[in-house]
Amino acid sequence: MRGAMELEPEVLLQEARENVEAAQSYRRELGQRLQGLQEAQRQVGGPGRGRARAAGTGGAEARALRVSESFGPERRGVEGSPRPRRVWEWGARRWGSAGEGEIAILGGVEEQNEKLWSFTKKASHIQLDSLPEVPLLVDVPCLSAQLDDSILNIVKDHIFKHGTVASRPPVQIEELIEKPGGIIVRWCKVDDDFTAQDYRLQFRKCTSNHFEDVYVGSETEFIVLHIDPNVDYQFRVCARGDGRQEWSPWSVPQIGHSTLVPHEWTTGFEGYSLSSRRNIALRNDSESSGVLYSRAPTYFCGQTLTFRVETVGQPDRRDSIGVCAERQSGCESLQRDQAVCVSTNGAVFVNGKEMTNQLPAVTSGSTVTFDIETVTLGTTSINEGGNFKLRVTISSSNREVVFDWILDQSCDSLYFGCSFFYPGWKVLVF
């Protein structure tokens, strides 16, 4: 019998194709057996309980446990140890060379002849007819119970005495909206017969094992801050019925993330100290003055920019919270050209000019939001003598002002900023 190097190239190529197909078929079969082993794990429900049932019943259950024990020396039992992973690694050593064969085949029979020979020789030593034995589900222990109707009635009475039974949780998450450094979570009742007194929202990173409370109250919307960009988080919500102490079952967890870069204030600016995430600025020095700007122009038209005033200091008519097309050093306030802002007394300034309309004065806990959109005619931005127009909506305390802001150049992203002339002001941006 000739060696692999003596085979005709076409014959060698055919052998390589057959070996690759065999490896792929082996992988599919191993995947099915792995799924069967996982189902057996779930059916047993735990190594301790599985052993107890096998010991008490013997026969098929014991055989099933012995099969599963062959995949790992640390802990014995169908469930409770990484057996499926070991099965997968065990099989990967057999089909892993299939990729090498596929590459050799793609190279053709001329220049890759040596690679085809190497793969064919290696494949001849791989056993693709050997698969791990997986127990049938009928041979795996499964806990079941049969109770008299009288027992069921007693259990039912206790359940209804201490709680409720429902086919689904009474509240579910309906929407997750990404924000820079945050996610807005909205939920709603799905049980019309359930009267909610309070809601409880929890979240966690998908890599974490523990949920943490982030909101308890009567609202059906909450923005979860301190969200890292491009990281998946899980959210769930439950409700407390009117006049009850216990919480309802949790909603089905929903996964959300934010792709938007978090808003940050510029570091190292004299007169302000920042939080660790640089989204909170505290005015702590009255000796210096000037505008504290964002680190970058991270506000994009079409988004909502929100400032929340955490604490207040002595107000001044030059105070400002707003956005601008570019940073300008040496300015003591955003009440200037190419900027729109709100003073702490509620006055609104557009390109340095005070508007007639005014918002309520800023107090502790106030939120000021900016919604800015490009004004377009068809698909083209309105250009008035070289100027570009943005439609601005500023809201605070359930009141808003709407106006057009004229800029001397097209601007899709903006800086934000603030200026306070006395210490004590603390503002969060998101």
Instruction: Name the helicity range.
Output: 10-25%
* Fraction in beta strands: 25-35%
Number of domains: 3
Oligomer state equals single chain
Mean pLDDT, all residues: 79
Largest sheet: 8 strands, antiparallel
CATH architecture assignment name of the largest domain: Sandwich
Unreliable segments of 5+ consecutive residues: 46-82
CATH topology of the largest domain: Jelly Rolls
Top-tier CATH class of the largest domain: Mainly Beta
Total helix count?
7
Report the radius of gyration as a whole number of Å.
Answer: 33 Å
Structural class by helix and strand composition: alpha+beta
Shape: flat
CATH superfamily of the largest domain: SPRY domain
Tell how many strands the DSSP assignment holds. Answer: 24
N/C terminus separation = 75 Å
Describe the secondary-structure layout:
Layout lengths: L8 H36 L2 H11 L2 H10 L13 H13 L2 H9 L6 H11 L25 H14 L8 E9 L2 E8 L6 E10 L6 E6 L3 E5 L7 E9 L12 E3 L15 E3 L5 E4 L8 E2 L5 E2 L3 E8 L8 E5 L14 E4 L4 E4 L2 E6 L8 E8 L1 E2 L2 E2 L1 E2 L2 E10 L2 E9 L5 E7 L6 E4 L1
Helix pairs in contact: 1-4, 1-5, 1-6, 2-3, 5-6
Function: May play a role in the negative regulation of cell cycle progression.
Protein name: Cytokine receptor-like factor 3
Keywords: Coiled coil, Cytoplasm
